[in-house]
Amino acid sequence: MKKKKSKSFRGCFLCRSLYKSIAAVILFVLCIVMTGCSLIDDYFVKKSEYDSLQAQLNDANKTADAQMEKIREIENKNEALEEEKNKTGEEIDLLNSQVKELKSQLDAKSIQNLEKQIEKLEGQPKKLKNLLNNINDLLKNVYIGSSAPEELAYTFTAFTISYKAKTYIITAGHCVADNYGKEGTFKFKANFSDNWLYPDLLGYKAEFYNLDDYGVFYADGMSGGFEISDKKTEDQFLLGSIDKGLSIVRNLGDSSRRGESGSPVVNEDGEVIGIYVVYGLEFTPIQLVLNIIDKTEIKRLNLLLIKSGTD
């Protein structure tokens, strides 16, 4: 009996040892597997993550290439700007030298011009002496003109002349045309007077660009007026209407102002030689006015002859 128990005990012991060995092996394998996965995760990258990193790297390379291209473009622009700057500097230097040369030339001319102006101013009082001595009498022959009725009106300048023992009111033809001269009526008032005159329109022409620009009026009972002449002097002058508030007397070559059309242009002797119509030194010769007056007078005389013949 004792012998059987010993064998059974040894068998159980061996089984337990085998179980322990198997358990140890299983535990060892599990440890290796778990440790191996951790190492793989630490030192190896999954394919999906690799592809993502590769795509990011490609994008970064493209961005870097684009940035480098922009840098090269900026460098090229800087080089072009530098060249342009150098070229501009050379042009400025050239212009400065030209300005310096012109200035040296103008200095001498300016001195000459100044001497001429001084000489002209020194002689001016002598030229204006006759004109200024008679200025009040001359200004009495200058008028302000306007169309009537008032709602059609804008004002202009006019003057009277003495021709063949009669007095006529003269102005610029475009002033007549602008004021509906064919149908409208006109009124005129002299400097230093409060009385309006309502003369008849004998005729007008309004081609001021051709300097063929005049209007002629007549009324019985008028007297006085500028003496007429075709004599041009070194300087001509323009006389104005006091009511217009423009230049009373100025050199013909000075700046013109609106409303001076129709003003008398007089020589240094105070004789009227033309009608101011445009600007600068341009004017309608007074002779054109005399021609239309003569034609009108001839027509009037013919009508009188015809009338007397029928009577």
Highlighted features:
five-stranded antiparallel β-sheet, disordered N terminus, 2 domains, single chain, six-stranded antiparallel β-sheet, Thrombin, subunit H, alpha+beta, 5 helices, 311 residues
Task: Produce the secondary structure layout.
Blueprint lengths: L1 H42 L3 H87 L1 H5 L2 E7 L7 E8 L2 E6 L1 H6 L6 E6 L9 E8 L4 E7 L18 E3 L9 E3 L12 E3 L5 E5 L6 E3 L1 H24 L1
Antiparallel strand pairs: 1-2, 1-4, 2-3, 3-6, 5-6, 7-8, 7-9, 9-10, 10-11
Summarize the structure.
This protein has 311 residues and is an alpha+beta fold. It has helices at 2-43, 47-133, 135-139, 173-178, 287-310, and strands at 142-148, 156-163, 166-171, 185-190, 200-207, 212-218, 237-239, 249-251, 264-266, 272-276, 283-285.
Q: Looking at the structure, what is the overall shape? A: rod-shaped
Number of domains: 2
Q: In sequence order, what are the helices and strands, one letter per element?
A: HHHEEEHEEEEEEEEH
**CATH fold-level topology of the largest domain:** Thrombin, subunit H
The rounded Rg comes to 55 Å
The pLDDT mean sits at 77
Q: What can be said about the biggest beta sheet? A: 6 strands, antiparallel
**Number of helices, counting only DSSP H or I runs of 4 residues or more:** 5
Number of strand segments:
11
Structural class estimated from helices and strands: alpha+beta
CATH architecture of the largest domain: Beta Barrel
Helix content: 40-55%
* CATH level 1 name of the largest domain: Mainly Beta
How far apart the termini lie comes to 200 Å
Low-confidence stretches: 1-5
How do the strands of the widest beta sheet line up side by side? Answer: 4-1-2-3-6-5
Q: Beta fraction of the residues?
A: 15-25%
